[in-house]
Design a protein that fits this description.
With 449 residues, this protein is of the alpha/beta class. The chain folds into three domains: 120 residues, HUPs (Rossmann fold, 3-Layer(aba) Sandwich); 126 residues, 3-Layer(aba) Sandwich (Rossmann fold); 145 residues, 2-Layer Sandwich (Dihydrodipicolinate Reductase, domain 2), CATH 3.30.360. 33% of the residues lie in helices and 26% in strands. The strands form three sheets. A nine-stranded mixed sheet has the order 19-18-17-16-12-15-14-13-20. A six-stranded parallel sheet has the order 8-7-6-9-10-11, sandwiched between helices. The protein has a five-stranded parallel sheet with strand order 3-2-1-4-5, sandwiched between helices. Strand 7, helix 7 and strand 8 form a beta-alpha-beta unit. It is globular and about 80 Å long. The model has no long low-confidence stretch (mean pLDDT 93). The structure holds cytidine-5'-triphosphate.
């Protein structure tokens, strides 16, 4: 029996795929089809695959050409598969000509003619209107947002607005953005979505005006500093049928997401303690917004939403109380340590603009613990550790560029799929963070050190 193997993503299965599978099958008696899994595709930079792996496997099965379907998980798997399944012929479309010659050591390699004029990329682009984004606030994070958005299909930054028009002009020249708007209201009719990257205290107003105008809004973290404001904004967004999402890049980081689902699956037992820390020392420059009490400066507002993320995702939003221990200077917290009590757990976090901490994340459970080294908020690596070191496991992932592409991709995906709450950072979690910020603002349960 002659065994043939071929691989692909098979997203939005099309005639090109069907022709290829038929031709591959005709080369032998038994066809194995390797379908890439979702995280492998993400690692390869395919951020916009529409069908998930189960749907893609079903589509391949429905063609009737595959005798066996396997999942492709890792780089180098093709050599393993060829040997494991006793494959005679490796077949792939001619767009890969020459790329798999290294397999000739193990089997025959055949490049089959590719069907002209069709591809999954084309279908994805055709079925997707480009979401036109306007940026409000041309600061540091907006600077990173524009190049990152170029890695995501179906989105284009078309305009910017900043209170400081000159700054907006420099930004648009530098980033090659076509429009600079004189007012936010001028920008709104021209865009489908708004990315709010202003200082924290301006978030509420821009978000509200954006969603009331029927625009989707991606708002930088911290979203707002008040629980009722957060609830109100999510409520209006849903009424208006638009997506409102808090942009917390860690929430969309592939390694962080995988860590969360592994812990929720019980791999370290019941979680009893989470300790997360984050610090960034700045020059003590009073002109920086980060040190200005009138602009919600300080460590808690600036960084708190990152360590709160694993805590709220794993322990939930129903904590019993939160005590905050702060080192204040000139009206802002240079350092804050939070202790959050849950019925069966206690969590701590540390954030510092003026104190350097070890920036790791440790999640302790009844069977083992997860250790994520600094900088855990943009991690590509973590370990699960147990009493018996032989059971320890290390996990490696990819983290591309500044990492904002993952949140942009999720925002676009929520828009297309009309998902009002992203599983990566639920609305209720975002609201809870705003309530915690409010507790800080009201100086409740705060102890100065
Ligand atoms: N293929 C083909 N003819 C096409 C498109 C794809 O023969 N018009 C082949 C590829 O060469 C590959 C297999 O189908 O052997 C699966 O390819 P895949 O990457 O899933 O399809 P594409 O449509 O090329 O996907 P994308 O646009 O996402 O790269």
């Amino acid at each position: 029996m002659k065994k043939v193997i071929t691989y692909g993503t098979y997203d939005l299965l099309h005639q090109g795929h069907i022709n290829l599978l038929r031709r591959a099958k005709e080369l032998g008696d038994y066809l194995i089809v390797g379908v890439t899994n979702d995280s492998f595709d993400r690692d390869r930079g395919k951020l916009n695959v529409r069908n998930n792996v189960l749907e893609r496997v079903e589509a391949v099965r429905a063609t009737g050409y595959a005798d066996q379907i396997i999942i492709e998980d890792y780089v180098g798997q093709k050599i393993d598969d060829v040997q494991k399944y006793g494959v005679d012929i490796f077949a792939i479309g001619s767009d890969w000509e020459g790329k798999f010659d290294y397999l000739k050591e193990f089997c025959e390699v055949v490049y089959l003619p590719r069907t002209e004029g069709i591809s999954s990329t084309m279908l994805r682009e055709e079925s997707q209107e480009v979401v036109k984004i306007g940026i409000v606030g041309c600061g540091r994070v907006a600077n990173r947002f524009v190049p990152e958005s170029e890695f995501v299909n179906g989105v284009k930054v078309v305009g910017v607005y900043d209170l400081d028009e000159e700054k907006a002009k420099r930004f648009s020249d530098d980033k090659d953005i076509s429009h600079v708007y004189k007012t936010f209201d001028q920008m709104l009719p021209e865009v489908d979505a708004v990315y709010v990257a202003t200082p924290h205290l301006a978030h509420y107003e821009y978000v509200r005006r954006g969603i009331e105008a029927g625009k989707h809004v991606l708002c930088e973290t911290p979203f707002v500093l008040n629980g009722n404001e957060a609830k109100e904004l999510y409520h209006i967004a849903e009424e208006k049928g638009v997506i409102l999402m808090e942009a917390n890049k860690t929430a969309h980081c592939p390694a962080f997401n995988h860590l969360m689902v592994m812990i929720k699956s019980g791999l370290i037992g019941d979680v009893v303690d989470i300790d997360a820390s984050l610090s960034k020392l700045w020059d003590d420059d009073k002109t920086l917004r980060e040190f200005d009490p009138t602009q919600a400066g300080g460590s808690m507002y600036e960084m708190g939403s990152y360590p709160l993320l694993p805590i709220l995702k794993l322990m939930g939003i129903h904590y019993e109380n939160m005590n905050l221990y702060c080192r204040m200077k000139d009206g802002v917290d240079m350092y804050t340590k939070g202790v959050i009590r849950y019925p069966n757990a206690v969590c701590t976090f540390r954030v510092g603009l003026g104190v350097k901490t070890e920036g790791n994340l440790v999640i302790s459970g009844t069977k083992g613990y997860a250790y994520v080294p600094a900088p855990w908020w943009k991690t590509d690596y973590f370990e699960l550790r147990y009493e018996n070191p032989a059971d320890n496991k290390k996990f490696f992932y990819k983290w591309d560029g500044a990492g904002l592409r993952y949140e942009i991709q999720e925002f676009i995906s929520c828009i297309y799929n009309h998902r009002f709450s992203s599983a990566r950072l639920r609305r209720r979690e975002s609201i809870c963070m705003a309530e915690m910020m409010e507790q800080f603002t009201e100086r409740k349960n705060i102890y100065e050190i």
